[in-house]
Structure formats: C-alpha cells, structure tokens
Amino acid sequence: MITLKDILYKVSIEAVKGSTDVAIGKIEFDSRKIELNDVFVAIRGTISNGHDFIEKALNQGAAVIVCDTFPEIIVNGVTYIQVKDTNLALAFLASNYYNNPSQNLKLVGITGTNGKTTIASLLYQLFKKAGYKVGLLSTVKILVDEEEFPATHTTPDSLTINYYLAEMNKVGVEFCFMEVSSHGIHQKRTEGLIFSGGIFTNLSHDHLDYHSSFSEYRDVKKSFFDHLPKTAFVLTNIDDKNGTLMLQNTRAKKLTYALKSYADYKASILENQLSGLLLKINGNEVWVKLIGTFNAYNLLAIYGTAVELGLDSLEVLRLLSELESVSGRFQFIVSNDKITAIVDYAHTPDALENVLGTINDIRTKNEQLITVVGCGGNRDKTKRPIMANIASNLSNKVILTSDNPRDEDPTDILVDMEKGVEPQNQRKTLSILDRKQAIKVACQLAKPNDIILIAGKGHETYQEIKGVRHHFDDMETVKELLEERNQ
Questions:
Q1: CA–CA gap between residue 248 and residue 226 (Å, rounded)
Q2: Are 80 and 18 in contact (CB under 8 A)?
Q3: In this structure, what DSSP letter does residue 383 have?
C-alpha cells in the first residue's frame, strides 16, 4: 500500500488541508482517468487548466488534489496539497511513486534542435550490439529493451517517463537514452530524474510558436545542463555557436566534440558518398553506413558518449561501422530506372539546409535535385518562407505542399511559404496542395539518375488534417509511385 506521505519527497509544499497519511491509488493529471482514491494533479496547460476539472476529479473518486490555488469549496475527507508549480510537483510525485527508477540505470538525455532522434536511437542500437539491456525514449518509439511501445511526444509527460523507466528496472535495463525537448524541459517533465549524462547537438530556428523568442528557446535548453549533477557529464557540440554557452553553469564534467574546432572528441570527414562516410575519429579511421556532415556530428556524439559510459574506444569504432540509419532520417531507395528517392524528417530551416547541402556535396550535378517540402500547421509561421527559400535556392525543382496542416487552412501555409521564393526561383517552383499528388509530380518530373528529396515528415505514418490523423507514409508513397513508373 502506498500512502500520500510516501510520495511527497522533494515536493515543495506551500499548504496542506487534510491528512497526508492516506492510502492512494495512482497519480493522474487527466481528470477523465481518475478512479477511486487517486491523486489528481491540476496542471495549467497551454490549452486547458486542470484546476477547472477538480470538481470532476472529485466526482470520480479522487482522494487527493494537488493544486497551485485551493478551490473555493473544500470537501471533507479529501486532502488538498497546495504547491507553487504543479508541473514540478507532478515530476517529483511521479518519480517517488515509481521508486525513483532513474537512479537504477544510466540515463542520458539528448537535446538540441536537430539530431536528437538519430543520436538516441543509434546509441540504443550500439549498446544493444555491445550486449547490454537498453531503453529508449524517443520521438519515433519507446523501447524497454526489446519490447516496443508507441511514442506520442518527443519527451513524454513525467508519469509516462517514470512508468517506462520502472518497467526498464524490472527487466534489468542498464542504459537508457532519451530525447529531451524544449517543451519537456520548460514543462518540468525531466525534473526528479537522475541523469548520468547530457548531449547538446545544435541550436537553430524552431518552436518559436511556443517560446517567445530564440533567446528563451536557447535558455530553456541550457537549463537542462544547468541542473545536471556533478556526477554526470555534458558533451557539447563546440562547433555550434551556442555550444560553449551550454557549459557555463553546469556542475557536470564538461566535454566537447567538433569537426572544425579543437575538442575532446574530434573527427574529420575523409570521404562522403551515398554509400557512407569515411571518418577519422580521434586519430582512428572508420567507415560508417550513414551519410552527410550532420551525421558525422551525430556519430561523433555517439562515440564520445559511449566512451564516457565506459565502453572501449576501439570497440565503439567497430560498433559504429555496423549502425543502420534511423527510420525517416535520410532513408533512401533507388528505383529500377536509377531514380534515388530520399525521405527525411527535416522540418526546420537548418535541418533542410543540412540535408540539401549533403545531397549537393555527394551528387555530380549532372542530375536534377527535386525537392518536395511542406510546413506544419499551428506551428511557428516565421520559418515557412525561410524553408521555401532554402529549398528553391538549393534544388533544381521544388514542389511546395502540405505537411501536417492540423487546424490551419493548408492554402494559407503555402501562401506563407511562397513569400520566401525569390523571383529568379519562381519558374522552378510549383505549389501542389495534396501531398501525394506533389510526390507523384516529382516522380513524373524525375529522369534516370535524378534525386528526389521528400522532406518534413520522415518517420511519420500519418497526416493530421482538422484534428484527424489519416494514414500517410512518405516512403511507402514514393515507393509505390516509382514502381508505377516502371509498369
């Protein structure tokens, strides 16, 4: 039996009404999930305020209410805990409820604008190949060693994180790699977790629909490293102009990686081909199956992390050579008539520029590069013209189309993107609202040896329109359309 007082460790309590020596069921922040004797935590979200649902939670049997303001009506027999920040309280309550599972494994958080999913997923893959039981909390999926669960957010809520960490404890997981988003940090979802390490990838234009400015976005990322314990390590990309900033106030061991600067972990690219990369890492050469400068950075971060976690450096190089690309991250197929189709998650200006730059570095320029790209609805509008500008500058032909329009009119999104196309690029740019039709036109325009990039959705197998998710898979779609060409 768990009592309320058992889970209050580290929770900053301002006032209590009722007894803390009461048996509790589970913790919930969604009133619809409340059952008899549960704890309801009232969260002030971006869409709704949990304090408006306290009465509903009580009607469904809640025994404890955690809130930042006491309700006007206090029900006898119910315990009310007033805290300053219910998000923070939820994080500690969840960690305590599941017996602080993060302290029983080595947890590494990866944050930055781009590269989080690739680094987390490939670290999982590498440590599995090294013979360990491993966990993964990522945008693409959650893995408890070899058991897979669907992911709904880049960084899940505190209850979900601690639940899966506890499940990892049950099966003896030794290492867990976790994507840490700016939303997750800002909403205190990672508080109460004990990290063994943190990785900073890079910082560029993103999420300014949520954060008021780029500096706020940057400082939220930095706060993750500020809170790491001195027993942890920070591995930061020193080539990024914000890389040094991430180290300023951390108590953790400070480490750097770079391709261009002096660093603890240094790499250079010796060969960059569609079949892979030849890298020199800290003086040793290794051939890897991944492509592009951005993946050289990802692999270097993986190498440094693995070494810091105790793996032999030469063994890590061998394991790097065996790693396979992550779903929706520079995934490519080659059709029977030699058309290369690449699907990538690039949904920020920096990521799109990196992917297009990589393709242009590899290709001979005797072929066309045709780019299909869209921007999401209900998200940062300022990046739309920038992404269209990058695509039209770095491609031979561009098709602007829908991504996940969500609740926005997709026509409005395209109008925003079209504003970024310069006059000299307008003749090579088309706007096609329907994403499948846009990919079909790209396939029709392509000739043997041409390259098609389909950017923005990557691993996603749906398209969200007016609150409804419809099945849509970029790789599945382009495969079908290229096969139709050959029939």
A1: 8
A2: yes
A3: H
User: What is the rounded distance in angstroms from the CA atom of residue 15 to the CA atom of residue 33?
Assistant: 26
Q: Which residues pair with 16 in a beta bridge?
A: 81
Burial of 128 (0-12, 13-18, 19+ CB in 10 A): middle
d(CA 171, CA 144): 8
Nearest to 105 by CA among 184, 178, 181: 178
Residues 34 and 61: beta-carbon distance below 8 Å: yes
Provide mean pLDDT across the span 16-20.
96
Structure tokens at 429: 């740019």
Q: Is 162 helix (H, G, I), strand (E, B) or coil?
A: helix
The CA distance from 299 to 128, in Å, is 16
CA distance 326 to 70: 47
Nearest CA-CA partner of 240 in 148, 381, 111, 97: 111
- Any long-range contacts for 1-9 (C-beta under 8 Å, 24+ apart)? 2/97, 4/39, 4/64, 4/79, 4/81, 6/96, 7/39, 7/93, 7/96, 7/97, 8/81, 8/93, 8/96, 9/92, 9/96
Residue length, the chain? 487
The predicted structure's pLDDT at residue 311: 98
Q: What are phi and psi of 56, to 5 degrees?
A: -65, -40
* Distance set, CA 427 to CA 324, 386, 396, 421, 446 (Å): 38, 18, 10, 10, 17
Q: How far is CA 282 from CA 94, 207, 255, 268, 272, in A?
A: 41, 35, 14, 9, 18
- The pair of structure tokens assigned to 192 is 């109460």
DSSP H helix total and E strand total for the chain: 13, 24
The Cα–Cα gap between 57 and 36 comes to 10
| CA dihedral for 325, 380, 426, 400, sign (positive or negative) | positive
Is residue 29 within 8 A of residue 90, CB to CB? The reply is yes
Which tokens hold the place of 467? 């609150």
Q: What angle do CA 38, 41, 47 make, to 5 degrees?
A: 130
pLDDT score at 210: 47
Give per-residue pLDDT as tens, 37-76: 999 999 998 778 999 999 999 999 999 999 999 999 999 9
Q: How far does CA 118 lie from the centroid of its chain?
A: 9
CA distance 400 to 391: 9
* DSSP tag of 261: S
> Do the bridges between strand 331-334 and strand 340-344 make them parallel or antiparallel, or are there none, so unpaired?
antiparallel
pLDDT at residue 209 is higher than 60: no
- Copy the structure tokens of residue 79: 């315990």
- State the DSSP string of 408-457: S-HHHHHHHHHTTS-GGGGGGEEE-SSHHHHHHHHHHH--TT-EEEEES-
CA distances for 475 relative to 47, 289, 327, 457, angstroms: 33, 19, 10, 10
The CB density around residue 73, as the number of other CB atoms within 10 Å, is: 8
